[in-house]
């Protein structure tokens, strides 16, 4: 089993990613850490606890993380895509379990020290918790096996600005720090996640399945899909965060290329862009393995089989 920590801003696709991970026997989930992004960190923590309870997985410990970016003001929530509450405004019972007292970044360090070279961190929200952990314990870059980052857009437009993807945009300085740190990184960006779409037909199947879980997820994803349609993506909604979990389970879903990635922190029009050196003779040594191709049919089949 692969030891993983999942860092989330739960969020509809984060919820799907959690369900996929919980139902994947290849993964040993050491804990879920929370951050801001789609919603505030308090809401992310509450949503994470609610989703884990819905999944019957409330034994997985949840650690609240950063409430704001390293150096900037907190940006607007992503209400259009995730609703006011982050879960497409569906109502789930208040969580019965509480989050742990330990901070997310502290728990990351503790687990990395406890299992040197064994822990994969899957980040599907802002990179603030990981950056905080690296600042507090620079050895994290050697202790952690790999970081799988859902974030960035190398060959395609952004989704928060014309060039920036939401998770990088949430805290560009944190992302910059992580990419400069030397920690082994796999980037699962919009380049591949916008090729793995969930469609309305899938939601019909979930409704027909008729369980509490499948119905709740169908309702959430209906909201997500309607939001995608409003911005012109009528074919379906991107399985961003689930693909990052998928890559942790089976790296053969994607093809990666080693590349140098820098994060623009200029504050200008290209702020939060992930800039890749894709020249035939790059000037800078690679700092990440970037997913540029995905076997979307293989991934989608696996995800759909596992998610409930
Ligand atoms: C990413 O941003 C968030 O809105 C999603 O949950 C996902 O992690 C996609 O850009
Ligand atoms: Ca997310």
UniProtKB/TrEMBL annotation:
Domain of life: Bacteria
GO cellular component, one term: cytosol
Keywords associated with the record: Glycosidase, Hydrolase
Cross-referenced Pfam families: IU_nuc_hydro
One annotated GO biological process: purine nucleoside catabolic process
One function term, GO molecular function aspect: purine nucleosidase activity
Domain Inosine/uridine-preferring nucleoside hydrolase: 4-300
Record-linked InterPro entries: Inosine/uridine_hydrolase_dom, IUNH, Ribo_hydro-like
UniProt name for this protein: Nucleoside hydrolase
